[in-house]
Automatic annotation (TrEMBL):
Residue stretches making up the Chorismate mutase domain: 1-85
Protein name as catalogued: Chorismate mutase
GO biological process per UniProt: chorismate metabolic process
InterPro entries, per database record: Chorismate_II_sf, CM_dom_sf, CM_II_prokaryot
Pfam families assigned: CM_2 (PF01817)
SMART domains: CM_2
Residue stretches in coiled coil: none
GO molecular function: chorismate mutase activity
Length: 87
């Protein structure tokens, strides 16, 4: 496969990633609103560790990169949650 074809392929993957990212952030917003309504702490370290363990164990040779990616995803999700609740 040549460079152009591979880049077309990566563009398609990026579109999927972006759609999933937007979907994840939309859900995170709903979770934040529910937590405020029920007076629950926004940050849940146990849940975050569970996600990181699962991601690492499922991504084999990319595990260290997947971990970094999901730490960033959760940081962005918490940053947005704080914005949503006006903190
Ligand atoms: C979305 C939540 O809120 C926070 C953000 C998380 C995430 O982005 O996956 C996970 C745990 C919480 O620290 C949640 O509690 O599920």
């Amino acid at each position: 496969m040549n460079l152009e074809e591979l880049r077309r392929e990566i563009n398609l993957v990026d579109e999927e990633i972006l759609k999933c990212f937007i979907k994840r952030m939309d859900i995170s917003e709903k979770i934040a609103l529910g937590k405020i309504e029920n007076n629950i702490e926004l940050v849940n370290k146990t849940r975050e560790e569970e996600i990181l363990n699962k991601v690492e164990s499922e991504s084999k040779k990319y595990s260290k990169y997947s971990r970094k990616l999901f730490i960033t995803l959760m940081d962005l999700s918490k940053e947005f949650q704080r914005e949503v609740i006006g903190d």
